[in-house]
Specification:
83% helix, mainly alpha
Amino acid sequence: MKPDVIVNSFPLLLKGALVTLEMSALAILIGTLVGLLLALFRSSGRKWLDWPTRIFINLMRGIPFIIQIFVVYYSLSSIGIEIPAFASGVLAMSLNTAAFQAEIIRAGIDSIPKGQTESALALGLSRNQALLRIIIPQVFVKILPSITNELIILLKNSSLVSVIAVIDLTRVGQQIVGTTYRPAEIYIAVALLYFLMNLAIAQGSRYIERRTAIYR
C-alpha cells in the first residue's frame, strides 16, 4: 500500500465526487417531484391515471438500472435527440428513483386516516389545501427513513453512469487506476468518499427526524 498515491490523487477524486453529488442532487430533486406526482396519480382513484402510472412504476422497478441508463442514452440519440451523457445520467436516475419514491409516498398517504381529510373539508379547506397543509407534512415525517434509504441507494447507483462516460467519482477512479496501476489504493479512496457522502445523507436525515419529531 502506498498512501502517497491516495494523497496525490485526492484532488481529482474530489472533482469526481462533486460531479456525483451534482448528479445525485438533481436526480433527487426531480425524482422526488415526479414521485410525488405519480403517488397522487396512484391515490387518485382514477383508472386512467392509475394504470399508466402503475405500468411505469413496474417497468422502472423491474428493469436493472444499468439497462435503464443504456435505454435513455442510446434511445434518445437514435431518434435524433442528442443530449450530453451527464443529462442522460440525471434523467435515468430521476426516472428510476421517482418510481421507487412514488410507492413509498403512496404508502405514506394511504397510512393517514381518511377522517383527517374529511375533517379538513368540513372546516372549509379545499381538497388541495387539505393535501398540502395537513396530509403531505405528516406523510413526509412518516416516510423519511424510507426516503433516506432510497436516496442512499440512488447515490450508490450513480456509480453506474460511468458506463456512458460521465466523469463521476467512479470514472475518475478508473482513469487514475489506468495511469497509476494502483487499484487497491484508489478504490479504497473511492469507497471512502462514497461512504462519507452517504454518511452525510444519513446524518442529515437524523437531524430532520429530530426536528420534526413533534409532528409524529
